[in-house]
Design goal:
362 residues; mainly alpha; 3 domains
Length: 362
């Protein structure tokens, strides 16, 4: 749990109870106990009954150090037979042993090792959660008509603010500064596979920022730092100069395959105005942004970029081979058909519950 920085292991949760049961069985199998499952059930039974547990602790504390054999006879005579509880009967009663194990882990020796792909997947899962929050905060109309393009192309989660704010700011800034060259079709749904690419790019951008900012960090240490701080780059030590910070953001933008890495680096290193945060917080903190607020943010961010002195010129798409063009178009048609099918199913499911409550698909 401490290694992967997973947050689902809360005291009393189902994940915690399952982990405790598995840890007990593993310990008893490693100790070559003849009946590991049965003994694990007895321990869990003791933990599920506070009265029985306190009685056992008091009996054990009374045993003399020079006669440890007395413990068996004492427990056998005075302890009642406790049946193994049902799996769902052991709930919040395991909070105490979990907290006890958590305290012990702080004194355990730290083992230096390289982190596996599973730890990187925990970080990607965390990034995915921030993108879902950012999608929920964007106004539905603008997201379907305009901002889906800029979010999928340049809505990275690194920047001077918290991850959700960075996604929103990067998305709105790129749309305002580099608008599309042609009219966009209104998009009805954003699939997980569509988001996966920008999430992976954000992953590489975050790690590259930290490794450029702190030369002593390697990629594994950067991943651990990101999980410890919930992807908050502001928790890093301050850069000695604006140029050093801009260099770190340029490394992040390059690793994240941003369409305009130099422009984004200049924008992020200069975008620390309190007006951005006040606009986002005045709208209700975690509530959905209004169209007016998004418009004000676009004007504010574009003016902040113009102050850097860089010219915002949209590049023409690079020509590709005709065969590749047709393959890309075919893949797009397949995705759009799948999205329309999913959208119809979701709307049909919502329509069946219109009598109970009125829902609007974001």
């Amino acid at each position: 749990v401490e290694d992967r920085r997973t947050k689902c292991f809360r005291p009393g949760s189902a994940a915690t109870n399952g982990a405790l049961k598995l840890a007990l069985k593993c310990a008893m199998v490693a100790a070559k106990h003849p009946c590991p499952s049965e003994l694990a059930g007895v321990w869990l039974s003791l933990c599920s009954s506070l009265d029985t547990l306190e009685k056992a602790v008091s009996l054990l504390s009374a045993v003399r150090p020079n006669s440890p054999g007395d413990i068996l006879h004492t427990l056998a005579k005075q302890m009642p037979v406790v049946p193994c509880p049902a799996p769902d009967a052991i709930g919040s009663s395991l909070i105490r042993p979990w907290e006890l194990a958590a305290r012990r882990s702080k004194h355990a020796a730290k083992v230096t090792h390289q982190y596996s792909w599973s730890l990187r997947r925990v970080l990607l899962h965390t990034i995915h959660g921030f993108y879902l929050q950012a999608l929920a905060r964007m106004p539905g109309g603008e997201l379907r008509s305009r901002y889906h393009r800029s979010m999928l192309k340049a809505g990275h989660c690194y920047g001077p603010f918290d991850p959700v704010t960075n996604i929103i700011v990067n998305t709105i800034w790129y749309e305002a500064t580099f608008p599309p060259l042609s009219q966009l079709d209104e998009l009805d749904i954003l699939g997980t596979l569509n988001l996966m690419r920008i999430e992976a790019q954000s992953f590489y951008g975050l790690v590259s920022f930290l490794c450029t900012h702190d030369k002593d960090l390697n990629a594994d240490q950067a991943i651990r730092f990101l999980l410890d701080t919930d992807l908050n780059l502001a928790a890093t030590k301050q850069c000695s100069s604006v140029q050093e910070e801009q260099e770190a953001f340029r490394a992040a933008a390059t690793a994240a395959w941003h369409p305009r890495p130099d422009a984004q680096a200049a924008f992020l290193s200069s975008c620390k105005t309190p007006a951005v945060l006040s606009l986002l917080s005045d709208n209700g903190g975690q509530q959905q942004l209004s169209s007016q607020c998004v418009h004000q943010l676009a004007m504010l961010l574009s003016s902040a970029f113009r102050s850097t002195g860089m010219l915002a010129q949209q590049k023409r798409p690079v020509a590709i081979y005709e065969r590749r063009f047709h393959l890309t178009m075919d893949e797009g048609h397949i995705q759009r058909r799948a999205h329309r099918r999913i959208s119809r199913k979701v709307k049909a499911a919502l329509s069946r519950y219109e009598e109970q409550a009125c829902h609007q698909l974001h």
